[in-house]
Amino acid sequence: MLDNKGFDLWADGYDKTVGLSDEENTYPFAGYKDILNAIYREVLKSHANTVLDIGFGTGTLTCRLYEKGLHIFGQDFSSEMIKIAQEKMPEAELYSGDFTKGLCMNLLGKKYDAIIATYSLHHLTDEEKIPFIKSLLPLLNPGGKIYIGDVAFENREDLEDCKEKSLAYWDNEEYYFVYDELKASFSGLCFEKYSFCAGLLTIRK
Prior knowledge:
Elements: H1 4-23, H2 32-45, E1 50-54, H3 62-67, E2 71-76, H4 79-88, E3 93-96, H5 105-108, E4 112-118, H6 126-136, E5 140-153, H7 156-165, E6 177-178, H8 179-182, E7 190-195, E8 198-204
Parallel strand pairs: 1-2, 1-4, 2-3, 4-5, 5-6
Antiparallel strand pairs: 5-8, 7-8
């Protein structure tokens, strides 16, 4: 798993690396653009005003929402990626910090219409995901929604099949979402598949 220094080194080429994997329909970013576009459309359709992005990276998605006039808040642990994102969104409130150790106090003191996490929460173990996601629900305004776009599968069999086919590139230090294993913990959890290795999970408050 990349630490914050690794992500700092990857910052300049991150979007290019992701785009190449998406265009070639390969693990882990096949379906990436479709997922981001789906979240973008859904957030705008919901008339959200305040958005929290957890692990926003270079701001690929949130800068588009920012351009539409939405108020953007976020946390990431790469100082270089924060710098790139802040240049795109000068008035966004972006904070440095490792979300696996919790959100910054400045973010915990606010309410949001939408909470976004794209390709970030797979750094949490399966045991950590459920309490972390549950801790986000009180931060939502009534009717608010959590959008998790990531390497994700409907069931464990699909994950194992993808792992076998992508073994040369598989990252054993990342923990991918399995919808069947999470749905009992969240009322109204929905899953939409976007590629053989990616999907969108949504939870409404």
